[in-house]
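re: that chain from earlier
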Amino acid sequence: MPSFYKTDGTFIPPVRQREYYVGLPGSGACSPGVTADCLTDMPDGMQIVGGNSGATAPSDNQHVYWQCGRKTTQTTDTTTTRYFTPPLDHPYDCTAFDMGSLGGNWDFVDGPVGVVDLPRCWDGTGYSPSDVVYPEQDGGSNDFLCEGTYATTLPLISIRTHIGSIDGGADYNPCTATCRAYIVLGIGAPYSCANGSCLIDLSLDHTAQPTFSTNDQVAMFGVPNGPFNSQGGYTVVTDDQSNYKVTINIPNSLPLPQCPGVLGSSTGCGTVADDISWDDVAFKLAGGTDCSLTYPCNHTHYFYDLDASFWNTWQQDVLGDLELYCLDDTTGANGCLQAVPGEAVIGSNRTAECVDGSC
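^ sequence. v structure.
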């Protein structure tokens, strides 16, 4: 579990770390008899490494992201309510999403959460980190499914580290500057184009009251059919906070596709956030260098170097039971399957999909 240092040198132990075993991406269903669509049991002794400890920017570590947490609550026998915070490629202020602002249903928010999704596409033979890759690295044509020479799909292991409050109190801002973030539900068509730029209207999720002001500099992240990494250089022209809308000025060289949104979607039309410098993040990762062997010693690293490892050397029968009764329990009374767009679900720390050999 990583630890952290504030920029003033203060050591910050994490609040906790959680690991999730996730089924197929999104609401993907397992097709009976089609092995490529099913999960394979995690082999005993498997070693998996995710993230990129040598990244020089968030764009070098695309399977790491930051959020303030999420929760799925079973409200009735047939109804669930999902609570989301924006996914972003850097840490941001979680204060607007805590229980004090939004009520008891948001008691899961305890500060920024760094998420590392480990690779899941296996070559079916080896057990070292080089034998497991991300879908876009498997040699196939689909960047979301396991194909090519790594066509065996393992459960996705998502490792989530809760940093907590940087100042030890109720302030969940991990930045030295203002670093807000909001889920975007709609991106309108460009209009009033002149001098190399256009205006567009953004509709924001109603979870947290937006507080952008005129002339704020913002960036967009995770826009469907748009660039995955943060794209900055947008200026807030007008803000309609009461109606959760904001108008921004975008350069013609940084177009954004129109996007309808659904209230409560975990992905929506991406995230809009303050356009910050990476040096504005008020902490660094600890570790990575043995200072007894190397001098000079650098034992702190930027947030975008976050990485994680999984060594399956513990009780294999326990992991097998988890896969059998959770990942494979698509219809059972435990109700493991809770599909969330962009991520197989996390309902009571359990997710569901078909395990190869039973579908």
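Confidence is low (pLDDT under 50) at residues 329-359.
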